[in-house]
Each structure stands twice: as C-alpha cells, then as structure tokens.
Write a structure and sequence with these properties.
- A seven-stranded parallel sheet has the order 3-2-1-4-5-6-7, with helices on both faces.
- Helices cover 45% and strands 15% of the residues.
- It contains eight helices and seven strands, in the order βαβαβαβαβααβααβ.
- Helix 3 runs parallel beside helix 4.
- The protein has a single domain, classed as NAD(P)-binding Rossmann-like Domain (Rossmann fold, 3-Layer(aba) Sandwich), CATH 3.40.50.720.
- By secondary structure, the protein is α/β, with parallel strands linked by helices.
- It starts with 7 loop residues before the first strand and ends in a 7-residue tail after the last strand.
- Bound molecules: nicotinamide-adenine-dinucleotide (NAD).
- InterPro entries: NAD(P)-bd_dom_sf, Sc_DH/Rdtase_CS, SDR_fam.
- This is SDR family NAD(P)-dependent oxidoreductase.
- It is an enzyme of class 1 (oxidoreductase).
- Keywords: Oxidoreductase.
C-alpha cells in the first residue's frame, strides 16, 4: 500500500543522481507523495523532479541562505497549500585531518550540514505547527557516533553530531505540536559525496569494518526515510536510526 498517498514532501540536496536524496524522492513518489527537490543547481533539480513524474517540482535553493530558503518554502506552501514532510539531506564532506581544517573548511562543512538543517527546519516549522502535523527527517552519519573513521574529517563528525543534538532538541520542543523529528545515521553508502577522493585503500579499510560486508545503497537509506516520514513511525520522535550494515553495534 502507498504510505504517503496525497502527501507533500520537500527534500534538500536531492538532485544528485546516485544520491540518498534522489533515492528517497523516488521512493516517496512511489508511495504517493508529491515531492519538491531543492538543490544548488536549478536545471539539475528540475531534471531530477522530471525523472519522478510531471507533478514533482525542482527548485534552486542554497540551504545556507536563510532568505532564499524561506522564499522557496513560502512558494511551495502557496502552490501546494501544505508541506507534510521535510528531509534535510543536503550535505558535503571533506576527508581532512584535524590540523588541516582551515577556517573555510569549517565554515563550508558546518554551514551546509548544520546551519542548512536549522534554516530549512525553521522555514517549515511555523506551518507544521499551525497544522499540528509534520515530520522532519535529518541526515546525520555514523561519523557523528563513532568519531569519523569513514570518509569525512573531524569537522564533518562535529557537524553531524550537531545535527543529532538539533534533531533531539527540535523533537522535544515540537512534540506537543505533533511534529516528529528524527535522524538517520547512514554508514558508508556508495554515492558521489566522496567527489572522486575515495582511494581503493580507503574503500578496503571501510569494508573491513562492515559486518554485513558490503557498502550500503541509497535505497537502504530511502527505506528508513520512508519509515520515519510515514505513520509507520507514529510514536517515534527524537530517535537516531542506524543504517550501517552493523558498523556500529554497541
Ligand atoms: P551527494 O553528494 O550525492 O548529494 C548531496 C547533494 O547536496 C548534492 O546534490 C549537492 O548539490 C547538494 N548540496 C550541497 N550543498 C548544498 C547547499 N548549500 N544547498 C543545497 N544543496 C546542496 O551526497 P549523498 O551521499 O547523497 O549524501 C546525502 C546526505 O547523507 C548528506 O547529508 C550526507 O552527509 C549524508 N550521509 C551520506 C553518507 C554516504 O556514505 N554517502 C553517509 C552518511 C551520511
């Protein structure tokens, strides 16, 4: 059965072809949702939306731009009348060691992953509160829980740990208004986020740490996002769900 029939979902950073956001958008659409794909490049966002079907929207949006985010969300609320689901998926990473993190590295990684999650959430929260209904799904990472060791540097671990704290605090504050907020902590998923910087040696050592013996797929993460965005998880809020093939059994 369709778990999101008639619902409207916004997914940030979902234009990346092999990415987690695109796979999530596709699964949500398969389950009856109308999806807006927000990403930096307008043409790529529109193309990704068109891949899903004519009713879906692709829009340019930089999640670090407070005003820009608010404008896009306001336009969507006007067009659709409602937003039921926000997936804060836009993210970047850099494989740096602690002493190599320059101010601009810190700013870039913290801004997209953490500030962007805050801004996009702030843009939809008044609307969700007013309707007494909403679900927010944030993309954290196993890097936040185990202190890196996958691909991203310490600034990425810190940003994604920040996302976990933000998730739990928002879940607490928004629960009385029936807005649920949860985080997904993916382990290593083969996407383009590594930007060609992943060496065969890195991949071997990552694989050696995965009990299930394989990297995750974007669909592995999308399934978890569907659970958290649908009524299957009606009593789940403030949780962090591991999708990591057993990389962090604790
Ligand atoms: P990806 O690089 O394939 O896609 C990320 C998308 O975010 C891109 O389309 C990019 O254009 C967009 N983006 C970047 N900066 C943006 C900005 N300022 N505003 C709007 N969009 C922006 O990455 P992915 O692997 O699909 O990762 C998706 C999310 O999952 C990220 O938050 C990432 O940190 C997280 N994650 C990924 C993995 C993994 O192994 N791939 C593991 C843990 C967590």
């Amino acid at each position: 059965t369709a778990l999101l029939q008639g619902q409207f979902a916004v997914i940030t950073g979902a234009a990346s072809k092999r990415g987690l956001g695109k796979a999530t958008a596709r699964l949500f659409a398969d389950h009856g949702a109308t999806v807006a794909i927000l990403d930096l490049d307008e043409a790529a966002a529109k193309q990704a939306a068109a891949d899903l079907g004519p009713q879906h929207l692709g829009m340019a949006c930089n999640v670090t731009d407070l005003q820009g985010v608010q404008q896009v969300i306001d336009r969507l609320i006007e067009e659709w009348g409602r937003i039921d689901i926000l997936v804060n998926n836009a993210g970047i990473t850099q494989p740096l060691k602690i002493m190599d993190i320059a101010p601009q590295n810190y700013d870039a990684v913290l801004d997209v992953n953490l500030r962007g999650t805050l801004y996009c959430s702030q843009a939809v929260i008044p609307h969700m509160r007013a309707r007494k209904q909403g679900r927010i799904v944030n993309l954290s990472s196993v890097s936040a829980q185990r202190g890196g060791g996958i691909f991203g540097g310490p600034h990425y671990s810190a940003a994604k740990a920040g996302v976990l704290g933000l998730t739990k605090a928002m879940a607490r504050e928004l629960a009385p208004d029936n807005v649920r907020v949860n985080a997904i902590c993916p382990g290593f998923i083969a996407t383009d986020i590594t930007g060609g910087l992943l060496t065969p040696e890195m991949l071997d050592s990552i694989k050696a740490g995965i009990p299930m013996g394989r990297p995750g797929t974007a669909e592995d993460v999308a399934g978890c996002a569907l659970f958290l965005a649908s009524d299957l998880s009606a009593y789940v809020t403030g949780s962090e769900v591991d999708v990591n093939g057993g990389s962090l059994i604790h």
